[in-house]
Amino acid sequence: MMNKLLMLLCFLVLLVVPLSSAGQDLSDTLEVFAKLHGLDVEDDEGEDDPLEALDLPSQRGGHISKVLVNVDAFGAVGDGVADDTQAFTNAWKRVCSTPKSVLLVPEGRRYLVNATRFRGPCVDKIVIQIEGTIVAPDDPKSWDPKNPRTWLVFNNLTKVYFQGNGVIDGSGTKWWAASCKKNKSNPCKSAPTALTIDSSSAVRVKGITVQNGQQMNFVIGRSDSVRVINVKVSAPEDSPNTDGIHITESTNVVLQNCKIGTGDDCISIVNASSNIKIKNIFCGPGHGISIGSLGKDNTTGIVESVVVDKAFLRGTTNGLRIKTWQGGSGYVRAVRYQDVRMENVSNPIIIDQFYCDSPKSCENQTSAVNITQIMYRNITGTSRSQKAMKFSCSDTVPCTHIILNNINLQRSDGTVETYCNSAAGIGYGYINPSAECLSSSDKDAKIVQPTTQHIVHTEL
């Protein structure tokens, strides 16, 4: 099968009008094609999931194969006013040590829970069944100083299943109002993440809603084999730094059939993450689907083997974005975006090696995170800005092996263009706007009018 694919790719490349100079090595390009075509997302939601299908046990009698651990039985009040933290902690201790158990958060109630770490290791195959609403304290002044960056953390777990139709609500309104991004007179402080899955493996999250995160909504960190299905994440468009799903130091993560609308990136993927598969995602409002930022403060950032397959982005400030700071090191490689539809997106396709989310101008530096083997295939829709595609790359560490196939980006009130700086690649099929500026030698080419202004980008 792979030999046939390589033969097909050879044929396609021979038909391509090259967008790169002679320095682009054909054999390298064919190898990149084959690698990127090998990244796929399974259509079957549960085909490669490590957990069995676990149903909520019946409470009406009959045979029960699982042990139900209801937080109400441990003293939870569920009126949204009384502090139910201890009840949740005690219920967790029981479920963590009980084989085939289900932690139940009943529907129709609001449980006020303070910052809590639900620690493992636990017995395998436990279920957290969220049907009601878990709500955070709404006043930052009453927050536990021992947990300044987290609210609900599930740590060191294996084979655990989160499911249900319930809500995790971070009550972030007062946190957002206190942000320096909302009011420059406020001190810049970090705020908690609503839901964190940390140092865990074989995790499945299905059906729940995470909303109004104090800062980030849902973080997957230092974990392996995590599948997130049919999850909704929401926060107001003007809520600062409220990333929807943030992936860091994690491998083998699948996000599928999720709807995300926030005040920051719908999805963000940062350092030490690989084999990330994203399929059937709705994004908007927000800042798009981002890899990065990487390389801040001269650090090393590595992200590889990422596929975004079938996504719809509406009204976002970015579409498909890779963002890195000057002075960093490491690489982003083997990324495939395909079958993505944009509607009224400001920057549909953007690679930015001059990212600078800082109130001060960032220092010009020669080192950079290397960006290579990036494929955009079947990307369509409308752009709010004239520059529908931006490849803004380092002069000393250029972007290489950018592959464009069937791109059709339009603008309702004018023409669109492509900007390139130190970016090399090829294109085949229909490409609009034209990307003839992609080359390995024409470092400051631009489709319409050239510019001599040095690029410094800030967070959008």
The share of residues in helices is under 10%
Please give the alpha-carbon distance between the first and last residues: 43 Å
Radius of gyration: 23 Å
Q: Tell me how many strands there are.
A: 30
Tell me the fraction of residues in β-strands, as a range.
Answer: 35-45%
Textual characterization of the structure:
This protein is mainly beta and 460 residues long. Helices cover 10% and strands 42% of the residues. The protein is built from 4 helices and 30 strands. Helix 1 packs across helix 2 (26-37). It starts with a helix and ends in a 28-residue tail after the last strand. The relative contact order is 0.09.
Descriptive terms for the model:
19-stranded parallel sheet, 30 strands, 460 residues, mainly beta, single chain, globular, 4 helices, disordered C terminus, eleven-stranded parallel sheet, 10% helix
